[in-house]
Design brief:
Elements: H1 2-8, H2 11-14, H3 19-39, H4 45-57, H5 61-73, H6 82-104, H7 112-136, H8 138-143, H9 160-180, H10 186-208, H11 223-235
Helix pairs in contact: 3-4, 3-5, 5-6, 6-7, 7-9, 7-10, 9-10, 10-11
Length: about 240
């Protein structure tokens, strides 16, 4: 995921690749990934490792194709509309949650209803992560990459009311994801709960920050608070539920 993201988010252009070459590099990475999933081998060690996991967990083009489609969308300067951003978030974040879920459940038995709830939670958590990152990175996305991931919102004049409406949507995703956490196996549950807690904390801090300040300040969770969130996920009241 990071290799593809770097192709479209600056590393390739900084190396002097024009847009067409960046698209070609992304196409090549996707083709190599599909070949590796099919054959079980790639000379690219990162692709080989991903394909090894994909073959073991059932990840295939149904999940990788939307991801690469969203990465290509970042090379298109056209503004997003509501349908376009929903499709983008599905491919860039929700399918990543679904891939992780397949890995987490590799050795676990779940009913069809539990699997449905877990898939919905994985998609919601991926969407929440992406939307929170969009909001805290609006300055970089706008100034360095020329992107606005919030259709209908003028980032230069965004009000606190508009910002809080965006955060209401993110909180709804986080709440939906939290409801599926108890269904995860214990080991992955702690890790996902930690990530959930970090982004929930970021959402709180973004809500406390004036909208105008987001254009000059990147909000982060201090390291001591990160440690407390991780400890709470590992040893808190719900950590050992089976």
């Amino acid at each position: 995921m990071r290799v593809a993201d770097e192709i479209v988010d600056g590393a390739a252009s900084q190396a002097g690749l024009p847009d067409a070459a960046q698209r070609a590099a992304l196409d090549g990475l996707e083709a190599e990934t599909l070949r590796a999933i099919e054959t079980g081998f790639s000379t690219n060690l990162i692709v080989h490792a991903f394909a090894d996991t994909a073959r073991a967990t059932g990840i295939d083009a149904r999940l990788t194709a939307p991801f690469f489609a969203s990465m290509r969308r970042d090379l298109d300067p056209a503004p997003f509309d509501a349908a376009g951003i929903a499709e983008y978030i599905y491919g860039s974040a929700e399918v990543v949650g679904l891939m992780c879920l397949r890995s987490f459940l590799q050795q676990a038995e779940r009913t069809d209803e539990e699997l449905r709830l877990l898939a919905a939670g994985a998609r919601s958590l991926g969407a929440a992560f992406q939307k929170v990152n969009f909001l805290r990175d609006i300055a970089t996305d706008r100034d360095d990459l020329g992107r606005n991931y919030f259709p209908g919102v003028n980032l230069l004049t965004m009000t606190d009311a508009e910002k809080n409406l965006l955060l209401d949507d993110m909180d709804a995703d986080l709440d939906a994801a939290a409801r599926s956490l108890p269904l995860l196996p214990l080991g992955s549950r702690r890790a996902v709960a930690t990530a959930h807690g970090l982004f929930a904390s970021l959402a709180v801090k973004l809500r406390e920050t004036p909208a105008r300040a987001l254009l000059s300040t990147r909000i982060r969770v201090p390291d001591p608070e990160k440690l407390m969130i991780a400890l709470g996920a590992a040893f808190g009241p719900g950590a050992w539920k089976k």
